[in-house]
Design brief:
Catalytic activity: UDP-alpha-D-glucose + 2 NAD(+) + H2O = UDP-alpha-D-glucuronate + 2 NADH + 3 H(+)
Helix content: 40-55%
Mean pLDDT: 93
CATH architecture of the largest domain: 3-Layer(aba) Sandwich
Largest sheet: 8 strands, mixed
Number of strands: 13
GO biological process, one term: UDP-glucuronate biosynthetic process
GO molecular function: NAD binding; UDP-glucose 6-dehydrogenase activity
Organism: Rhodopirellula bahusiensis
Strand order of the largest sheet: 3-2-1-4-5-6-7-8
Distance between the termini: 32 Å
Protein name: UDP-glucose 6-dehydrogenase
Strand content: 5-15%
Length: about 425
């Protein structure tokens, strides 16, 4: 394929080297004459293992060139990949100046072409940025079919970028109009089509997660050293658990955490670190973050503007009768305190069997719990105006017929069946589970 790459920075030059190595004809475009000259002299403008040889061979075989003339590059290619920088402003906000200028140049050049052009944006941009560019500069080109625009996030690590490009751990893209981009798949390899804003956000989710992992490892390392423990060894032990620690478990948006372990242990280590004078700001923020998530759920219930609430699932998770630090107990407690009419259904719960700290927790926080528990799910749904689903109860399918179109359904944990019910559905961290 004939490809123009805008931006001879790290991502752009690696992309140029790899695509030309695969046999594509590549034209690099940049305003920096030194970078243009480097490519035309067969020299990689960055240090990356294996890239110099790729650039030298591609240049010698006539598959790679560079120019400052964006109009000629567009005229001579069928696909453009935007890899320009999106640096931070002093305020911390993203600077889209270069991406905007390049996109506007591409659109202006495409207007003079007599054939369709495909644009693939790889510059890291906040959700909504690509849609704004398209709607501000190319609505007519999109409407006539002259332009096709997609966003394809890159996940290249310096030092292993060629390996990451050829064998990506994650390959997704989003398209304006949500249509498959066959040219992109042909060029970049098999990729999953996702909503446009999701393709932009997943890059930030990945980078945030990597940053969280580094900060987590470093904070555990600091407390390890304070205790005379080898932090490197400790984290190598930690990573041996691929069932819970290094796995998809706990990575699914939904209810705040609760139970007998997490709140207690997070609180204990945080208090210990403060006592010992060890700064662990990320770990110390976890409980505040969890509380903010519960506040988010409360706001969803509040803005529904109704008073009769049914909570389905009071224990901290399905399959247990453990009420300790359950976020649903906190939700019920808060709603009752605000004067809401609250009922609770939980088929895991038998008050007569509660003992020990579990019993103490309820006696302390909700002494009138028994009066709020119901045993007839259908009757509870009929009487309620809003139903909070923390768990999927036995007989859920049979209860579907009791949901009228004006009844609000708040789904806390992603129970797919609820979307098919007749009520007004709202997910805790999603509008629809199908997206």
């Amino acid at each position: 394929m004939r490809v123009s790459i805008f931006g001879i920075g790290y991502v752009g030059v690696v992309t140029a080297g790899c695509l030309s190595d695969q046999g594509h004809d590549v034209i690099c475009v940049d305003v920096n004459q030194e970078k243009v000259d480097n490519i035309n002299n067969g020299v990689a403008p960055i240090v990356e293992e294996g890239l110099d040889e790729m650039i030298r061979q591609a240049r010698a075989q006539g598959r790679l060139s560079a120019t400052r003339d964006h109009e000629k590059a567009i005229a001579d290619t069928e696909i453009s990949i935007v890899c320009v920088g999106t640096p931070s402003l002093e305020s911390g906000r993203l600077n889209l100046k270069y991406a905007t200028e390049v996109y506007a140049q591409i659109c202006a050049a495409v207007e003079t072409k007599q054939s369709k052009h495909v644009v693939i944006i790889r510059s890291t941009m906040l959700p909504g940025s690509v849609r704004n560019l398209v709607e501000n500069y190319s609505k007519e080109l999109i409407k006539t079919g002259s332009l096709e625009v997609s966003f394809c996030p890159e996940f290249l690590r310096e030092g292993s970028a060629i390996q990451d490009f050829n064998h990506p751990g994650l390959a997704v893209y989003g398209s304006y109009g949500d249509k498959p981009n066959e040219s992109l798949v042909t060029l970049m390899g098999e990729s999953q089509l996702v909503p446009l804003e999701a393709s932009e956000l997943v890059k930030y989710a990945c980078n945030y997660w990597h940053a969280v992992k580094v900060a987590f490892g470093n904070e555990i390392g600091r407390i390890s050293k304070h205790l005379g423990v080898n932090g490197q060894h400790l984290m190598s032990i930690f990573c041996q658990d691929t069932q819970l620690n290094i796995s998809p478990n706990y990575m699914r948006p939904g209810t705040p955490f609760g139970g007998s372990c997490l709140p207690k242990d997070v609180s204990a280590l945080s208090a210990f670190s403060k006592q010992e004078g060890i700064s662990l700001p990320m770990l110390e923020s976890i409980l505040d973050s969890n509380e903010s998530h519960l506040d988010h759920l409360l706001r969803i219930v509040n803005r529904a503007g109704v008073r009769k609430i049914l909570i389905i699932g009071l224990t901290f998770k399905k399959g247990t009768d453990d009420l300790r630090s359950s976020p649903m107990v906190a939700l019920a407690e808060t709603l009752l305190g605000k004067g809401f009419d609250v009922e609770i259904f939980d088929d895991n719960l038998e008050l007569s069997r509660l003992t020990g700290s579990n019993q103490i927790e309820i006696d302390r926080r909700m002494p009138h719990l028994a009066a709020r528990l119901i045993s007839d799910l259908a009757s509870g749904i009929k009487k309620s105006e809003l139903v909070v689903f923390s768990q999927s109860p036995v007989g859920l399918s049979e209860a579907a017929s009791h949901f009228t179109k004006d009844k609000v359904i708040v789904d806390v944990n992603g129970i797919a069946e609820l979307e098919t019910f007749g009520g007004r559905y709202e997910g805790l961290c999603w509008d629809s589970l199908g997206e």
